[in-house]
Write a structure and sequence with these properties.
The chain is α/β, with parallel strands linked by helices. It contains twelve helices and ten strands. 46% of the residues lie in helices and 21% in strands. The two termini are 22 Å apart.
């Protein structure tokens, strides 16, 4: 059977969905995204097709492939990766992974925001130009992502400790997560291995501290929500169309405090916008891209 294949490549996993032309799902698989790099594009194309082949039902043939990929942060890069896939005889349409959210929600216009391992916002101008905001990596930004929230929480907790303030619950939450006894131990724990894999998993501890009454943790979360909203404002200032913001990603979907904060900041600054949390896997948007590629002239 000639099938449509969608792939959503994120920081920790790649979701691949195989669907019949009538929309029936024939395979739905998640694999680790270990080894994924969006460049060079020829290597990225082979990496992806190797994984598609492992999940493709016997006898199926890829009629078209839709891809949302972390690291494809410009329209040119997406086009180059699409061309690399086409060179391997697979008709393909490639976007940034955040650009999957709007079609996954069944919308033609809107702004997608991802807050998970990283953060980025993607919209489309009236002329069809794809617009990006954020996505600079957690060292430079990625506000609202798990690693960035922990980065800011650690800075706030350590600064309060230096000022001689009593722990309001944030420092102890981070100490417990990292299994260390004091503030110097926390500083060593996070700095000895300054990677998203070290920082990101501590994000639930920050949210738990906020829920337990830590004003420092609550402020960190609120600032993260404001920064995510700021990504949307930047895109609208550049002409992004649509009045729905579709949000997804492990942090914003799992933590109502962040989602509620994002909704509040959007409502206060641009009340014509509506926030929708994505209720289906983003890979559904990749399948929609594949269908559009198949029917494109």
């Amino acid at each position: 059977m000639r099938v449509l294949v969608g792939a959503d490549i994120g920081g920790t996993k790649v979701a691949i969905r195989v669907a019949a032309p009538d929309g029936t799902v024939r395979a739905d698989v998640e694999l680790p995204s270990t080894g994924w790099e969006a460049a060079p594009v020829r290597h990225a194309a082979r990496w992806l097709l190797d994984r598609v082949r492992t999940v493709l039902p016997a006898g199926d043939e890829v009629a078209a492939l839709g891809v949302g990929a972390q690291g494809c942060d410009t329209q040119e890069h997406c086009a180059h990766l699409g061309a690399a896939l086409e060179a391997l005889a697979v008709p393909a349409s490639v976007v940034n992974d955040a650009a999957l959210l709007v079609p996954a929600a069944g919308l033609e216009q809107g702004i997608g925001v991802i807050a998970g391992t990283g953060s980025i916002a993607v919209g489309t101008g009236a002329d069809g130009t794809v617009l990006f905001a954020g996505g600079w990596g957690w060292v430079l930004g990625d506000e609202g992502s798990a690693p960035a929230i922990v980065r800011e929480a650690a800075k706030a907790a350590l600064a309060a400790h230096d000022m001689g303030l009593p722990d309001d619950g944030l420092l102890s939450a981070l100490l417990a997560h990292y299994g260390v006894a004091d503030a110097p131990g926390l500083a060593r724990a996070v700095n000895d291995s300054p990677t998203p894999a070290t920082w990101g998993p501590a994000a639930p501890a920050v949210f738990a501290a906020a829920a337990a009454g830590s004003s420092l943790a609550a402020e960190v979360v609120d600032v993260a929500a404001a920064e995510l909203a700021s990504l949307v404002y930047r895109l609208r200032a550049r002409g992004a169309t649509g009045r729905t913001v579709v949000a997804a990603g492990g942090v914003v979907l799992a933590q109502p405090l962040l989602a509620d904060g994002l909704r509040s900041h959007l409502a206060a600054a641009q009340p014509d916008l509506t926030l929708r949390l994505l209720e289906v896997p983003p890979v559904a948007g990749a399948v929609a891209l594949a269908k559009s590629r198949l029917t494109a002239p």
